[in-house]
Amino acid sequence: MKKVFIILVIILVIVLTGLFVFKIKNNFSEEAKAKETKEEVKIAIMTATELNFLDIGQGDSTFIEFKNGEQILVDCGKDAKVLEELGRVMDFRDKSIDYLIVTHPDNDHYGGCIDVLERFEIANVIYNGQQKNEDFYNEFLDYIEKENANFKIIKTEEKLDFGGDTIDFIFPDGGVVSNPSDNNSSIVFILESGDKKALFTGDMEEELEAYLIAKFSDKLDVDILKVGHHGSDSSSSQNFVDIVSPFYSVIPVGKNKYGHPSLRVIRRLERLGGEVLRTDLLHGVKILMDENLSMSQIQ
């Protein structure tokens, strides 16, 4: 009887082990299928590079997803609000971002970057090289080091390729701008997808606008302008907007005490015949860089 009992126990152990192994294999198979399905959906849907100008209050943050699936976050706003807004445009299973571009270390542009570095695996961080003597800046650098991300400082004009789309960094380029400031040290770049172009300006003001007009006027005619410095009077000079002549002018802005955006700047942009889009009024702006430059609110 004891022998029969031992045999039954052994059989039971074998059966349970078999079921456990089957379940593990099945879970792996389902995860692989889910990943495969996600990639297939991305390939099927991403027919155009997508720009998402996030509604993060008074600050700046744009999530870019290229046709080949690569992703960039440009600036992070001032706090963890950026994570909530990224949740509106990213798959909840997506825990990585290929590039984080920090245009300059003003709090309303990089204040939420530590939260982003904590939440996501960031492969590359691109920065303007400006140093600040403050605790938060040092903590920001510490998090980049912990992340083990590739850290690159833009010093000269250079270009990156994203499956045929390109980003052309045109500033900093080693040149000297009259009246240099934190804002006029911003990374400025042109994103080109097919025959469509978008210009990202950080907090660029008139002095840097004049510098770029003198050096790159043939490159500055674009379809989409991320308006500099939240539509401030100190940016978007008449000469600059005439040359850029955007179809869409996107102003990242929230409740503030600075009078942003300036009504004068809004009127100046409207007279170009394009459309002025505010992140605070639309609760986020999505633009596809397709033939029609399809625009919608972020849902």
From TrEMBL:
<dbReference type="InterPro" id="IPR036866">
    <property type="entry name" value="RibonucZ/Hydroxyglut_hydro"/>
</dbReference>
<dbReference type="InterPro" id="IPR052159">
    <property type="entry name" value="Competence_DNA_uptake"/>
</dbReference>
<dbReference type="InterPro" id="IPR035681">
    <property type="entry name" value="ComA-like_MBL"/>
</dbReference>
<dbReference type="Pfam" id="PF00753">
    <property type="entry name" value="Lactamase_B"/>
</dbReference>
<protein>
    <recommendedName>
        <fullName>Metallo-beta-lactamase domain-containing protein</fullName>
    </recommendedName>
</protein>
<dbReference type="InterPro" id="IPR001279">
    <property type="entry name" value="Metallo-B-lactamas"/>
</dbReference>
<feature type="domain" description="Metallo-beta-lactamase">
    <location>
        <begin position="58"/>
        <end position="255"/>
    </location>
</feature>
